[in-house]
Amino acid sequence: MTVSETWEVEDAAPREDVARLRGQYLDLLRSTLTFSLWDGRDGTAWTPRPAVRRLADLFSRHAGVELVKTSSGLRGDGRDWPRLAHTMTGARRMECLQECVERVLLDEVPGDLIETGVWRGGSCILMRGVLAAYGDTTRAVWVADSFEGLPPPDPARYAADAGDTHHRNRALAISLEEVRDNFRRYGLLDGQVRFLKGWFRDTLPTAPIDRLAVLRLDGDMYESTSDALTSLYPKLSPGGFCIVDDYGAIEGCRAAVDDFRARTGVREEMTRIDWTGVYWRKEQ
User: Fold this and answer.
1) Which of 69, 90, 158, 220 could lock onto 77 through a cystine, CB 3.0 to 4.6 A?
2) Domain spanning 91-281: CATH superfamily
3) pTM summary value
4) What tens digit of pLDDT does each residue of 185-215 get?
5) CA distances from 241 to 61, 106, 227 (A)
6) What does the radius of gyration of the chain's CA atoms come to, in whole angstroms?
7) Are 200 and 116 in contact (CB under 8 A)?
8) What CA–CA distances, in Å, run from 28 to 33, 37, 103, 120, 138?
């Protein structure tokens, strides 16, 4: 065995150790963000019928009792609105997001990472965690949200959003301060995390982003999805990934994606992740 071959053997063990530790860290991060580490013990806060809401409020206020509906099996697929988890995204979509970020790092696809519509920030936290695990200090993670919930529908401009009620759900209005604090809890709040606060129609067209390697859309509505694609897809580098969280679950989102792809001539094959998530890799 030559000296160079000996060095290669000796160097291989540390590289294997680094890969193993990196994998363990990211597995733990995903499991914590989704709360799957606790075997489905999360659940959804119960919203009682109006007839018993006052009684439930009294219980909560005076006895400190919160009624929680368990959601066994739903957390893994991301079919619930969890009480504790930092993301609604299910396990497979989180795994896919990690794989996409790792792929652009390994292939050296230029650009930052962004999610449009972040709720408690879990998917963005995972993206920042992947960068940390791979020692990438050059890319930013952009966290784009109104941090006030979703906009009221504008059916005159976006007929597909007529009757949409997302704006009435205050559980979707997570403050910027809470999302920042969630990043801090994981030790991932630093200068590589950039926040874009406001409606997408106002913030995304002028966002100071040169190039993107991963574009993750979670805006639910036709308007939010269309605004994100129109402003950001031209910045997605060849080899970058476009991921859509709500394609299978919300008709308005699906229509916005299909209309954009038809209008702009996007021909890349769409890959289904699970019951609702899809992605494609940009070729040119």
Assistant:
1) 90
2) Vaccinia Virus protein VP39 (3.40.50.150)
3) 0.87
4) 999 999 999 999 999 999 999 999 999 999 9
5) 46, 13, 17
6) 21
7) yes
8) 9, 8, 20, 18, 24
